[in-house]
Amino acid sequence: MGRFTQFIYKCEISPEAKIDGGLYIGHPYCITINPNAKIGRNCNIHKGVTIGQENRGKRKGAPIIGNEVWIGVNSTIVSSITIGDDVLIAPNSYVNQDIPSHSVVFGNPCQIRSSQNATEGYINRKI
What's the 3-state SS for 8-21? Predict the structure, then answer.
């Protein structure tokens, strides 16, 4: 990502991060994606999101995020965790544990609710 984009939009998206096709950034402001993060296809990320790394302990590392995941405003996802496919992470959520596919996640600490087609109608610009 160029310096101009970092300066204007305050986004830190490392070119080393593994990001599959179909990434949609709704409002590109204040987003941080760790270089070791992995993001699947057709994911939506909104402003204020941090996808970060835990630097110590049993969860040391960065997240792996599945396909068709919608990440709401000001959410934080940290640690060596796996987010399944078809997961909706509600705004202002703090996620530091594995999330199964077909789930809605909300709160701090995060709560998980099973939901078939959790992201139906939410994912923008699928490829």
Answer: HHCCEECCCCEECC
